[in-house]
Amino acid sequence: MRLSFKNKKITGVLSVLPENEVHFKDGINEYNFTEKQSLKLAKIMGYGTRRIASESTTVSDLCVHGLEYLFENNYLNKDEIDALILVTQSPDYFLPATSNVISGKLNLKEDLICMDINQGCAGYEVGLMQAYMLLEQPAISKVVLLNADVLSKKVSKRDRNSHPLIGDGATITVVEKSDDDENIELFMKSDGKGSESLKIPAGGFKMPSTPDTAIMNEDVSGNYRSLDNLVMKGDDVFNFVMTRVPEMMNQVYNELSINDDNLDYYLFHQPNKFMLEKLADKLGVDRSKMPNNITEIYGNGSGITVPLNICHNLGSTIKNESYDVCLGGFGVGLTWSLLVCKLGKLDFCEIINYKE
């Protein structure tokens, strides 16, 4: 599906990361593999450090901290926020919506739309889509998009597939109406038949958590996890990304009558370094145009990796320069998306720590 928008722009991006930094080697003895095997895998996949939230830190804590920072530094006026969108798969509660919790903690105005969206790897583009649609309304001029997850709490420490990857954090993106007549083109698809590829089996209403769902079991690859833990079928996800994303990229090129020369950066979701290197090669894109360093520095924080990518790799220049970019997300759902737009001249683009 293709959706087109005009007269809207991103005016600022803030990343909020837990101060606690964990290195891959810190948990290497938990895995059912030799140290040599694990270090070899770490080199290939780009495992390094990750930011991990404490047991008591939730999505609302990270988002409130970031929003208060924006208010205090006059980057954002709370009374100007017309909609608050939170994209997360680790909400504070089943109910109420965590966006309402955040609004209440900050004493935001009542004339405000609060909305939670359950999306993961493609969540940034899904959130932007919702923000753009809300901005079509005369009553809405400024939308704050929150992407946040603390999924490390749901990953087994003995699962070498997922544990070295998953990081926590939040990002805040301000989206506004604009007089700039720039095209924003969004391409998005979903395949629910692949929903088993990334899943936390227990904990919801379909399979409530019990003492039995917490029992650890060994899989065929030697990883230990329970039904309460995230399970990722790595081969399925890799094959999905290598097949469906290039197909969609070709659709983007053809329908927009552009090619690689028209794009300065491919700012994609970052599952790991290896996958992005292979994807860049498959697309015939120079690896320097598709940054792949987020997971090895901060961890894979699901939907936050795209805006964190912007802050980390372009933060020093994007406040003064503008770039033609392709934002991309792909994973849990299965859902995949590509968004082509001009990005730049931001009011802020920073990374801050959340001290616990």
Q: Strand-and-helix sequence, N→C?
A: EEEHEHEHEHEEEEEEEHEHHHEEE
Widest beta sheet: strand line-up? 6-5-7-8-2-17
Beta-strand percent range? 25-35%
Q: Unreliable runs, pLDDT <50, ≥5 residues? A: none
The general outline is globular
CATH superfamily: Thiolase/Chalcone synthase
Count of distinct strands: 17
Structural class comes to alpha/beta
Radius of gyration: 20 Å
The top-level CATH class is Alpha Beta
Largest sheet: 6 strands, mixed
The pLDDT mean sits at: 95
CATH architecture: 3-Layer(aba) Sandwich
Distance between the termini: 42 Å
Count of DSSP-assigned helices: 8
Write the layout of secondary structure elements.
Blueprint: E1 2-5, E2 8-18, E3 21-23, H1 35-45, E4 49-51, H2 59-72, E5 83-87, H3 98-106, E6 113-117, H4 123-134, E7 142-149, E8 169-177, E9 184-190, E10 198-199, E11 217-218, E12 224-225, E13 231-232, H5 234-256, E14 265-268, H6 273-283, H7 294-297, H8 305-314, E15 322-331, E16 335-344, E17 348-354
Parallel strand pairs: 2-17, 5-6, 5-7, 14-15
Antiparallel strand pairs: 1-9, 2-8, 3-4, 7-8, 9-16, 10-13, 11-12, 15-16
Which characteristics define this entry?
5-stranded mixed β-sheet; 356 residues; 6-stranded mixed β-sheet
